[in-house]
């Protein structure tokens, strides 16, 4: 009896458990009976199947998924752009920036192009006149008397130097041009043209690329050679025998200008062969080389300073290409006896080359600014930096000529290009008779007039750009005038360091004080720089002036307490640390180291 009662109790418990399960999950029986068609994949919530969700889904989608419902869903699907407003606003600004790039870039290119024109015309117009004035000063030297203390005519003391540093540099430039031009007469342009024309198209394409690379390397190193010559010829010297060091520098400069002129001549000959080819295949290949430049520049990381370097390089390349096209047109017009009809034959090819240059520059700069998040307003800063160079070269404290400043900033050295252009013009145009010489003189007067007009317009525009960029205060910063120590040898004398844009010199020196602006802006721009008499010791016959070592410092209106002196090692370490800290924070005006390789990434 006990067993029977136990089994009954167990059966009752099982029945109760099954009843409870059915109450919790009543759809199992319905699914087994087939009364409703519930899909096996029901919505699962925490391990349980929700029958209400399944029934709701079944009411919403009474049929199986079909192509019609998918297409209707795709046609009626919507979205809201305002949910990501910042992202789309940024994309729109990028489009606006790309649309502004051509205008801002061409403003910079036009301004830089006329800066190169001004520096290039200076070699033909004002440089001969300046050399003539320097020679006249040397010829009038006996009027002063070698023993006279002061000349009664020119009021020049016999102890002062014969020529000013700027005149010495002008004479050296004139001598370099005369020697290189005489050496260029031994180079046969026609033989070089036919030698290049006999090569295959692929060889000419490789030669042209090699010439472009060599031109950049020559430009980057050439201005260093010329600067070394100028400083060696004008630095303070204690003994006359130290002037012998000018001779090897001068020979090196002549050799460089001659080689660079031959390089540009080969480049012009290759371009002339491309113009005169029958199928124009070489010209097409050479123009396609410009588009290869986009691939090498667009996908690199560029900062503002790197973009400034590349912009200066593009300005120089565009001006050089225009001069090469002028040389090609002169040679072709000479071959066709200056027939005006042949000029229209050359016009389509010239237009194609110029258009490809402009298009490549616009596309390259547009995508570089897009990928590096650089605004289009940066080109106005670049233009103000170039304008600052022009205005500062007209100041009293100018430390370099403007043509040399353009060469350092853009890598454009006008001497080799001027030598080649003079050689081509004189071989293409025959000057015979008084009428021809009269035309040459009138042409020279026209070039002088155009140069003066261009300089006036550029100077006015530069003043506007400098004022708009709030860079006027930097124009009146005085360079340091600390004399070199007497214990150093003349070859190691420290050059006068010019002020940078931030008012700091490149070497450790006294704090720079700001000069008060001159009474009129015109006098500060056009007046001659004052010579630095503290670099040169006075004559022994004149006991009144003190030597540079014993000369007291010039008193200032409000003297400040002197800073505590530091040992030499500590001062050098401090200067090195300050220079190290200033290196990453470069200003645009401090980038003047031959930016011909503009796509270099620091």
Account of the 3D structure:
It is a multi-pass membrane protein. Residues 521-531 have a biased composition (Low complexity). The chain crosses the membrane at residues 168-187, 246-266, 412-429, 435-459. It is found in: Membrane. The chain has 602 residues and is an all-alpha fold. It has a domain at 87-143 and 162-236 and 243-475. Helix content is 62%, strand content 1%. The chain has helices at residues 2-24, 27-33, 51-60, 67-76, 85-124, 126-139, 165-184, 189-197, 201-234, 246-276, 281-298, 304-335, 340-371, 378-392, 402-410, 414-428, 434-468, 521-526, 568-582, and strands at 44-45, 48-49. It starts with a helix and ends in a 20-residue tail after the last helix. Mean pLDDT is 74; it is low at 30-48, 145-150, 481-528, 532-537, 539-569, 576-585 and 593-602.
The number of distinct β-strands equals 2
- Which band does the percent of strand residues land in? under 5%
Order of helices and strands: HHEEHHHHHHHHHHHHHHHHH
Largest sheet: 2 strands, antiparallel
Taking pLDDT < 50 over at least 5 consecutive residues as the criterion, the unreliable ranges are 30-48, 145-150, 481-528, 532-537, 539-569, 576-585, 593-602
What gyration radius follows from the Cα positions, in whole Å? 39 Å
Q: What overall geometry do the principal axes of the alpha carbons give?
A: elongated
* Helix-strand makeup class: mainly alpha
Q: Please bin the fraction of helical residues.
A: 55-70%
Integer average pLDDT: 74
Q: What is the rounded distance between the termini?
A: 102 Å
Summed up, the helix count is 19
In what order do the strands lie side by side in the largest sheet? 1-2
> What oligomeric state do these chains adopt?
single chain
């Amino acid at each position: 009896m006990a067993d029977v009662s136990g089994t009954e109790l167990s059966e009752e418990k099982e029945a109760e458990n099954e009843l409870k399960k059915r109450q919790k999950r009543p759809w199992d029986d319905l699914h087994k009976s087939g009364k409703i068609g519930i899909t096996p994949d029901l919505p699962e919530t925490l391990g349980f199947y929700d029958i209400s969700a399944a029934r709701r889904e079944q009411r919403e989608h009474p049929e199986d998924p079909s192509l019609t419902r998918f297409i209707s869903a795709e046609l009626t699907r919507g979205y809201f752009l305002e949910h990501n407003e910042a992202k789309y606003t940024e994309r729109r600004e990028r489009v606006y920036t790309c649309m502004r790039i051509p205008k801002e870039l061409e403003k910079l290119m036009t301004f830089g192009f006329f800066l190169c024109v001004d520096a290039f015309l200076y070699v033909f117009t004002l440089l001969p006149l300046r050399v003539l004035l320097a020679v006249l000063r040397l010829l009038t030297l006996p009027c002063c008397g070698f023993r006279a203390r002061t000349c009664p005519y020119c009021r020049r003391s016999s102890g002062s130097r014969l020529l000013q540093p700027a005149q010495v540099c002008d004479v050296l430039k004139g001598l370099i041009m005369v020697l290189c031009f005489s050496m260029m007469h031994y180079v046969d342009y026609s033989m070089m043209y036919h030698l290049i024309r006999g090569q295959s198209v692929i060889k000419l394409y490789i030669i042209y690329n090699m010439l472009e690379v060599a031109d950049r390397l020559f430009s980057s190193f050439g201005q260093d050679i010329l600067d070394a010559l100028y400083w060696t010829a004008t630095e303070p010297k204690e003994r006359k025998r130290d002037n012998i060091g000018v001779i090897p520098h001068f020979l090196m400069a002549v050799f460089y200008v001659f080689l660079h002129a031959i390089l540009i001549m080969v480049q012009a000959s290759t371009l002339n062969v491309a113009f005169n080819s029958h199928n124009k295949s070489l010209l097409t290949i050479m123009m396609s080389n410009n588009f290869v430049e986009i691939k090498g520049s667009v996908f690199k990381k560029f900062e503002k300073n790197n973009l400034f370097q590349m912009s200066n390089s593009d300005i120089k390349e565009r001006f050089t290409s225009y001069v090469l096209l002028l040389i090609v047109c002169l040679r072709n017009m000479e071959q066709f006896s200056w027939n005006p009809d042949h000029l229209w034959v050359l016009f389509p090819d010239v237009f194609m080359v110029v258009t490809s240059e402009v298009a490549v520059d616009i596309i390259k700069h547009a995508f570089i600014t897009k990928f590096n998040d650089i605004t289009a307003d940066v080109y106005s800063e670049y233009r103000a930096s170039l304008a600052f160079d022009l205005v500062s070269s007209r100041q009293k404290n100018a430390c370099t000529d403007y043509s040399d400043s353009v060469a350092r900033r853009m890598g454009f050295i006008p001497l080799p290009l001027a030598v080649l252009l003079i050689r081509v013009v004189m071989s293409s145009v025959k000057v015979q008779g008084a009428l021809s010489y009269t035309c040459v003189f009138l042409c020279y007067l026209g070039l002088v007039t155009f140069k003066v007009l261009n300089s006036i317009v550029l100077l006015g525009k530069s003043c506007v750009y400098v004022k708009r960029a709030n860079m006027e205060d930097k124009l009146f910063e005085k360079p340091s005038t600390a004399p070199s120590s007497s214990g150093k040898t003349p070859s190691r004398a420290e050059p006068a360091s010019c002020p940078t844009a931030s008012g700091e010199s490149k070497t450790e020196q006294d704090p720079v004080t700001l000069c008060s602006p001159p009474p009129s802006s015109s006098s500060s721009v056009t007046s001659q720089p004052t010579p630095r008499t503290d670099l040169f010791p006075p004559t022994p016959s004149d006991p009144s002036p003190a030597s540079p070592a014993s000369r007291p410092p010039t008193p200032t209106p409000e003297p400040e307490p002197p800073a505590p002196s530091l040992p030499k090692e500590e001062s050098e370490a401090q200067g090195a640390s300050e220079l190290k800290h200033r290196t990453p924070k470069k200003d645009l005006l401090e980038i003047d180291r031959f930016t011909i390789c503009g796509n270099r990434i620091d």
